[in-house]
């Protein structure tokens, strides 16, 4: 199948997904359930990765800045910018593409091959709207919170690592993360997060929704969902960065 | 009543359904029988709109389903109940939630009314004390019964059953068949059952259509099927030694 056909099918699926819901109260319940699945379910892994990556970024920055000409607070500046601009919005989104995206594709794919989606259709329910829309809304809503938490934990991890390894003092690190702080960088990161959340959920749902066959194909759909959403995230990362920061 | 007129359907240049016309009567169990791959499931899925026919008409009480748009089809589908081969129960919901689902989606009933209706449907299919169990925790026969309960929850006018007794032991199989027959007569539903189980044919076959290589080959009822001299039908009906013995005894 050509990429143009896939794009057309993705567009049709999204048109159906964003059509008027049959009953708002049912969709509202679904959204809350999905916020719990997508958001709270990913909090643990996001927290662990952010803490350790923040620590590594700080240690690496300190290692790179071992020069009498560079002030020590530059470690804080570099850690802050790396975490806010790239690590939290992009790398954490890539991790979520693996965790949440794979989960969405396999869930919807299993529903497809066990005829649960057909059952919804025959009942008169719009299956794409009922299954996909709550996931997209939930991810677009909750992911920015996850990324903000990731930013704070990343900076905290960097702080702890900096102090324990004597790479930087507490005063210099805190001074560094405040130095020449641009609030727009956070807005830029959150804009990226929202776009990536939409990509993760919609691309993964697309691959799950059009699964054909059995358990083997569900696995393949899940893998495709992770690979394609990661590639699209990387492409959009360049695009958004060029538009917002150039 | 449901009527299909001259339905044809092709997949990848292969004609799966060839000019099929059948009338399915209200209040009766209308059976579609045939070998695996003969086109039975494609026919039923075309009738409920999961596939679009290449040619022909499908009339639900004289309402032309084939010429309807997506919204109009959705309205007709609210009058349809369907029992899938594997049950197609929602894994993430309990038995009771599965039955309540269509009521929550399309009715304005209160929570207690929905629960009462779900309990009535579950009792009607002889399923008690299973409300809080998940599909993974119940047997194949119980899944089929929950699927029937969900299918009748909205008082459907039309009931489609895709091999309702596949994978079930003979006793549970007869139980499911009897249940389908009783529900059909009790609620005056137009029921269409796909099967290749000859027990079902003999038990509940009011009207029987035999599909052979995508064509309607034979039509009749359960007493006529055993006396037919149609070669292809006889090859299908008397495929087992057990049925051959019955033939000798006739």
Which blocks of ≥5 consecutive residues of chain B have pLDDT under 50? none
Backbone CA Rg of chain A: 21 Å
Distance between the termini of chain A: 36 Å
Average residue pLDDT of chain A:
94
In total, the number of strands of chain B is 10
- Count of separate DSSP helical elements of chain A: 8
CATH class value of the largest domain in chain B: Alpha Beta
String of helices and strands of chain A: HHHHHHHH
> What structural category arises from helix and sheet content of chain A?
mainly alpha
Strand runs of chain A, count: 0
Radius of gyration of chain B: 18 Å
Q: What are the secondary-structure elements of chain B, in order, as H or E?
A: EEEHEEHEHHHEHEHEEHHH
Helices of chain B, by number, come to 10
How much strand of chain A? under 5%
Separation of termini of chain B? Answer: 34 Å
Share of helix of chain B, binned: 40-55%
- Unreliable residue runs of chain A: none
